[in-house]
Recover the amino acids of this structure.
């Protein structure tokens, strides 16, 4: 059987940590190997927004929270571990998503900084011409952020915003989250049925457990 390339997911300290967690849950449900990076800011936001207070050993707690077995194909990296697999371009991956992406991380990636493994892994994706997506959650944007978004887009990244649509008639916050997560999966060519597509007659099927 063909080996699935790992997917790099970074969760940073913008509001909307639920987007990153739901994306992680869905990828792992699909048995997609994930290399996960969680910034200190993200942990702070998760505590505020989702009442999630992780102890030192984040991985088992995350898997329990996401109702996933300990066998889920998840590798968690410390963000100061520059010796990690994803710090090198010779380690093949399917691409990387930063969900949600804080304005600080946007600026660091746009400037080519390597102050955390998240920035380094993103720089690796850009130099190796692998897909990189940053999902921002902000309003309004200042000129500096708009320039940073343009710089990243010109460098080959996909710049997205957590803006749920309403044409699929969401009934809950969870439906709105799934729309944004589904559109994120679309950018990497992952098959999913997280929301009813425009002009699609059938209801979405086989949606794994929601958060
Ligand atoms: C509850 C909470 C919500 C936040 N929301 C945002 C946000 O939406 N966008 C943003 O850029 N920063 C936000 N921040 C600030 C970032 O977490 C902070 O700038 C952090 O240093 C970002 O670092 P990181 O990119 O390494 O996670 C928020 C912080 C907290 C505590």
């Amino acid at each position: 059987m063909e080996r699935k390339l790992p997917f790099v997911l970074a969760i940073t300290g913008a509001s909307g940590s639920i987007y990153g967690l739901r994306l992680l849950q869905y990828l792992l449900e699909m048995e997609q190997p994930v290399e996960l990076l969680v910034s200190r800011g993200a942990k702070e936001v998760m505590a505020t927004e989702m009442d999630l207070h992780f102890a030192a050993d984040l991985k088992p707690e995350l898997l329990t929270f996401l109702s996933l077995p300990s066998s889920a194909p998840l590798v968690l990296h410390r963000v100061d571990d520059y010796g990690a697999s994803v710090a090198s371009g010779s380690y093949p991956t399917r691409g990387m998503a930063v969900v949600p992406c804080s304005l600080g991380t946007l600026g660091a990636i746009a400037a080519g900084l390597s102050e955390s493994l998240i920035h380094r892994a993103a720089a690796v994706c850009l130099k190796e011409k692998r897909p990189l997506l940053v999902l921002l959650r902000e309003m309004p944007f200042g000129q500096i952020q708009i320039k940073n978004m343009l710089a990243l887009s010109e460098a080959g990244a996909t710049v997205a915003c957590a803006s749920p649509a309403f044409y699929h008639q969401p009934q809950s916050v969870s439906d709105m989250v799934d729309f944004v997560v589904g559109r994120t999966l679309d950018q990497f060519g992952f098959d999913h049925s997280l929301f009813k597509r425009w002009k699609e007659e059938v209801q979405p099927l086989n949606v794994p457990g929601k958060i």
In short: The radius of gyration is 16 Å. The pocket of flavin mononucleotide is lined by residues 12-15, 39, 41-42, 44-45, 48, 102-105, 137-138 (CB under 6 Å). The longest strand covers residues 95-101. Residues 173-187 form the longest helix (15 residues).
